[in-house]
């Protein structure tokens, strides 16, 4: 190589070294610096005197030692160490005074000498330090996290990682669990296999899992899992959230709910028993006063008739209070049904006027009705509307003396813009303050204690009225000033709608009344459109004209307007079940004669006993209706005995008087056991009148025994009770009695007409 070529090569090498990102220096066999770049000089802060071949590597080391870089270490010892390092490749880190961290690499070269490379690794070292800090923080978080965590190797199903929380949840040190098969985490391997199966599923849906603790207890957790790669292998990461507090709270809520339901059942049982205990003496009061009143009228003793009528009125008033309490209980329990029908207001107002007229006269009040002749009608529950108006008008009459009570009716608009009817009940009575009006609609509450003392009452009327207004889709409001009277306002929509009615997709269209005179109509009552289709196809071929109702409410509305010849009635329906509809039908004279065919999926031959009726009559006993029943079941059979089963001697006496007056003999039994003994010792009676609540053996137990014996399979049994029946009790009676009279507590005078109608149809 010529000198020029050598110079050219050296220039190229110098340019290459200067473009490198590291500091580079080359030493010859005598350890003299022969080549270097500027970064080398900058990194080592190399004095210019040591650049070149005049000084050796040893000279530079002694210079550093003299500068104090080796501390208390002898310079010659430090030099010997560094010269020994030059014999083999060597790498180390060096921190400059300014904090820069250099990685130094010295490698020997063939022929002697060595090359040194200095790389700035400050950023990398800082990143590593940050990573170590983050890892330490993550380890601290992992150890202290309130959520248990485990990573399971998918292939080997062993624990690859487990945090402190999981260790605490199962009562073991987390470090001891790593490397264990998952099924060995718990004392019971079956629980481990169960968890293993959960984590092996591909789904990540959360599910509850009770983690067994080492002390034998269990911890309720919510576990979820996901697939991931862990150190290059497929794994599953699972988290366990302790939900023990939530589970305990849910259990407490369930217990509280059960306690509330139990309390509600106790309340319902109390009300049922209370109604029995109160209605039983009322049976004697009303029944005997009625008998005595008839005797006094026959004897021409008008003064006695007047006194006895007062006794009857007091008894019926007390009966009304009992019914109010029971109505409120039904409303609160959500068991109060609504029956919608078209109500003609002028006719309804006349009926209300007849009822409240005597109340107005008692305090010398004038009763004014402001109702336009063309007021028209609205679709609502007429019974609840009448009851609401009677409640308001009776209150107005009670709290007004020698004043005026006005009932004003007008067309109006609801807040949503729909058409409404407005009922205003105004009086010129004592009025109320703002504070008194604030307590007005609370149950068992009147304006204040002095109101109760001075005017009496239970405080239930307005509460029930408010509930009725809401059930009918309306509102009730009050305006009043002390000494200036009060105005109660009820607003009801012209078209009330029942909550939960069937949608358009379940529409069952009723074609209306038949136009062909003499056509036999069958009303099909069922919530299943398929049943309507099948019966239409089946009965239509036989020449019957079918009408349709999708629930009991609609069926009753149709029957009351245009009674059909036959009714097919489903048992299981929304709003009102079939037994309830049948009970209502048989309690209404206009509907009682209609034959009913029950449709049910229950295969029970005892249901045959109830196909004619499913209703019962509450005490006080309606004597005329009872007479008609006797004629119905024993027509022209003067030898047929009527067995009266009741623990109340006064009830038995009243019924004996009534039945013997109808020309039939009577036998008595004080409880179910006595009745069974009588039945076994005598021919079959024409009729059994059965009380439900009796000592030793009640009416339900008696029915169970009777229906278990084939000899009494056709025995007619009519239930007479003062008890409010539950759904289960009513269904039991429907299956085991031939006729159960409706719980109406109707005035005694209406009974004869009702049963006379049934008898006249040969039913």
TrEMBL record:
<dbReference type="Pfam" id="PF02518">
    <property type="entry name" value="HATPase_c"/>
</dbReference>
<keyword id="KW-0597">Phosphoprotein</keyword>
<dbReference type="InterPro" id="IPR003594">
    <property type="entry name" value="HATPase_dom"/>
</dbReference>
<dbReference type="InterPro" id="IPR003661">
    <property type="entry name" value="HisK_dim/P_dom"/>
</dbReference>
<dbReference type="Pfam" id="PF00072">
    <property type="entry name" value="Response_reg"/>
</dbReference>
<dbReference type="InterPro" id="IPR036097">
    <property type="entry name" value="HisK_dim/P_sf"/>
</dbReference>
<feature type="modified residue" description="4-aspartylphosphate">
    <location>
        <position position="691"/>
    </location>
</feature>
<feature type="domain" description="Response regulatory">
    <location>
        <begin position="521"/>
        <end position="634"/>
    </location>
</feature>
<dbReference type="GO" id="GO:0009927">
    <property type="term" value="F:histidine phosphotransfer kinase activity"/>
</dbReference>
<feature type="domain" description="Response regulatory">
    <location>
        <begin position="641"/>
        <end position="758"/>
    </location>
</feature>
<dbReference type="Pfam" id="PF00512">
    <property type="entry name" value="HisKA"/>
</dbReference>
<keyword id="KW-0472">Membrane</keyword>
<dbReference type="InterPro" id="IPR000014">
    <property type="entry name" value="PAS"/>
</dbReference>
<dbReference type="InterPro" id="IPR001789">
    <property type="entry name" value="Sig_transdc_resp-reg_receiver"/>
</dbReference>
<keyword id="KW-0902">Two-component regulatory system</keyword>
<feature type="modified residue" description="4-aspartylphosphate">
    <location>
        <position position="570"/>
    </location>
</feature>
<dbReference type="GO" id="GO:0005886">
    <property type="term" value="C:plasma membrane"/>
</dbReference>
<dbReference type="InterPro" id="IPR004358">
    <property type="entry name" value="Sig_transdc_His_kin-like_C"/>
</dbReference>
<feature type="domain" description="Histidine kinase">
    <location>
        <begin position="273"/>
        <end position="496"/>
    </location>
</feature>
<keyword id="KW-0131">Cell cycle</keyword>
<dbReference type="Pfam" id="PF13426">
    <property type="entry name" value="PAS_9"/>
</dbReference>
<dbReference type="GO" id="GO:0005524">
    <property type="term" value="F:ATP binding"/>
</dbReference>
<protein>
    <recommendedName>
        <fullName>histidine kinase</fullName>
        <ecNumber>2.7.13.3</ecNumber>
    </recommendedName>
</protein>
<dbReference type="InterPro" id="IPR035965">
    <property type="entry name" value="PAS-like_dom_sf"/>
</dbReference>
<keyword id="KW-0418">Kinase</keyword>
<dbReference type="Pfam" id="PF12860">
    <property type="entry name" value="PAS_7"/>
</dbReference>
<dbReference type="GO" id="GO:0000155">
    <property type="term" value="F:phosphorelay sensor kinase activity"/>
</dbReference>
<keyword id="KW-0808">Transferase</keyword>
<keyword id="KW-0547">Nucleotide-binding</keyword>
<dbReference type="InterPro" id="IPR036890">
    <property type="entry name" value="HATPase_C_sf"/>
</dbReference>
<dbReference type="InterPro" id="IPR005467">
    <property type="entry name" value="His_kinase_dom"/>
</dbReference>
<dbReference type="InterPro" id="IPR000700">
    <property type="entry name" value="PAS-assoc_C"/>
</dbReference>
<feature type="domain" description="PAC">
    <location>
        <begin position="205"/>
        <end position="255"/>
    </location>
</feature>
<keyword id="KW-0067">ATP-binding</keyword>
<dbReference type="InterPro" id="IPR011006">
    <property type="entry name" value="CheY-like_superfamily"/>
</dbReference>
